[in-house]
Specification:
The chain has about 525 residues and is α+β, with helices and mostly antiparallel strands. It contains 19 helices and eleven strands. Residues about 1-25 have low confidence and may be disordered. It is a single-pass membrane protein.
Length: about 525
């Protein structure tokens, strides 16, 4: 059938169309500034696949705006580049900005819907967050300090014996702590199967959670295409990754449940939670909650610890004068006849400032896990559409020259007063390093404590320096990092760990013997 229009109808249609175009353009002008994109696809080709935070920081400077706007194939996205904007939106307006963007690749295809960090803001998230908080709030985490000291001293022993494997030792330390706290599992000295399973799953989650890497996150209908379909490589990859994430949740949980049945389970978060189950509760649902919360504890704690201490090692190679200052403070307070413990922390402000600077200088998660705006909002005169992905750019916030002059330099003194005491008002580094608002990382207290005791212990016992090759030439570390959605790590580098005295080995071994008594 042919369509025919009279002149008045055409004029009316043209007027309505012109009005619609003007309205859209006017609304677009009210959006935050950002790079001009393509029709329909928007900015999906503008967003780099790696180190996105650097591009977002660059655009923020280019457009002279704390927030920038991107169109991701029809999905609006807001990037928050300043501490003030992050506070105004994520803190003051947390009721609007506490939801999560659902990522089909991670949540559905890879099967990470058990992880409460990626859950939407609702009852399921609250239930899991409440369970997690029960064991990881500040007062609760002090009970884990003996274990944190033990794994830190075990790290020292490993660095004495096989220093070249320092990154492997960091992963063992982090895994040992979390598996002990959450599951009561004592890991094997080498090639522990639980750590291996978790590391495979962490890699899968880091890849799948890389915002912008998979078209299915912008076009969810693609999740329904068959795996054999041309271009469906992402589905085949997701199926393999799903096996790893499922194993991380189920394998250690099943081991603990079996140990409980045999009366051999060690005290842990899971054992405590399973003992709390009432007969009138939905057992299957509660066990799903418990197993997911325990696995979430591993994913959060392991990445944070390994990344931060790896960055500390790198910083000590690049800034040896900082290492000497920190060692001098440790020697003055602790001495050379024992190792640091948490009772020394108040008297070691320079070490604490150094830890804060590590988290600022190379933030573990340069981009926070994306939030979702649940209703229209206005900020600084800009229209922020409901349904927007809202991402806190931790890197930009922690490298803001106005707050942190010379941000690329490693300067612990920026967190100290003139008298050497800690600047209590400098909280941006800790907050931005662990997320924002109601979705800030709930395991940050355990992570910060384990990072502090490990760094203080290493400073007490070793001097780190650049390695040399067979010809005596210094091997310069590149200082470059791997890009990842869950955590960013230094690229592999060589490091020489020199015991600070002839008594170092005896001190480390004797301290471990005391822990075992």
């Amino acid at each position: 059938m042919a369509f025919a229009f009279d002149i008045p109808s055409l004029l009316l249609f043209s007027a309505v169309l012109a009005l619609a175009v003007m309205t859209v353009r006017r609304k677009r002008r009210c959006l935050p500034p950002g790079p001009k994109g393509l029709p329909i696809l928007g900015n999906i080709f503008d967003v780099p696949k790696e180190f996105e935070w650097l591009a977002y920081q660059k655009w923020g400077r280019e457009f002279q705006s704390d927030i920038i706007y991107l169109n991701l194939a029809g999905t609006p996205a807001i990037v928050v580049n300043s501490a003030q904007a992050a506070h105004d939106l994520f803190e003051k307006r947390s009721a609007l900005y506490s939801d999560r963007t659902r990522m089909p690749m991670l949540n559905e295809l890879v099967g990470c819907d058990w992880h409460f960090v990626f859950m939407g803001y609702g009852d399921s998230w609250r239930e899991r967050r409440r369970v997690f908080h029960q064991y990881f709030h500040p007062n609760a985490t002090t009970s884990y300090r003996p274990r944190e000291i033990k794994v830190a001293r075990e790290l020292l022993r490993r660095l004495l014996e096989t220093p070249d494997d320092f990154m492997i030792h960091l992963r063992h330390m982090a895994g040992s702590l979390i598996l002990g706290v959450a599951y009561g599992i004592d890991v094997q000295p080498k090639n522990d199967p639980y750590i291996a399973t978790a590391e495979t799953a962490l890699h899968a989650m880091s890849m799948a959670g890389n915002a912008g890497a998979y078209l299915v996150d912008y076009m969810p209908f693609l999740k329904h295409i068959p795996s054999w379909f041309p271009g469906a490589t992402f589905k085949r990859q997701a199926a393999e990754w799903r096996k790893a994430t499922t194993a991380m949740v189920e394998v250690p949980f099943r081991a603990v449940r079996n140990a409980m049945a045999e009366g051999k389970a060690s005290p842990s978060m899971i054992v405590s939670l399973l003992h709390q189950l009432d007969e009138d509760q939905d057992k299957q649902h509660r066990e799903t909650v418990i197993s997911g919360v325990a696995a979430a504890a591993y994913t959060g704690g392991s990445d944070t610890t390994v990344s931060a201490i790896g960055s500390f090692f790198l910083a000590m190679l690049m800034y040896p004068e900082i290492q000497r200052k920190a060692q001098a403070e440790v020697d003055r307070v602790v001495g050379r006849d024992r190792l640091p413990d948490f009772s020394d922390e108040p008297a070691l402000p320079y070490v604490s400032a150094l830890v804060k600077e590590v988290l600022r200088w190379r933030p573990v998660t340069p981009l926070a896990v994306p939030h979702r705006l649940t209703s229209d909002d206005v900020y600084n005169g800009y229209h922020l559409p409901a349904g927007s992905i809202v991402v806190g750019n931790s890197w930009a916030i922690l490298h803001d020259e106005k707050t942190f002059p010379d941000p690329e330099a490693f300067i612990p003194e920026r967190f100290l007063n003139a008298d050497g005491s800690l600047r209590t008002e400098m909280r941006d580094a800790e907050l931005a390093a662990f997320g924002f608002g109601r979705r800030i990382c709930p395991g940050r207290h355990l992570a910060c404590a384990s990072i502090w005791i490990a760094i203080a212990s290493v400073l007490s016992t070793f001097t780190l320096s650049k390695a040399v090759d067979e010809d005596g030439n210094v091997i310069e570390p590149s200082g470059e990092y791997l890009s990842g959605s869950l955590a960013s790590y230094p690229l592999p580098f060589k490091c020489d760990f020199k015991p600070r005295s002839a008594k170092t080995a005896d001190l480390v071994y004797s301290s471990l013997a005391e822990e075992c008594e």
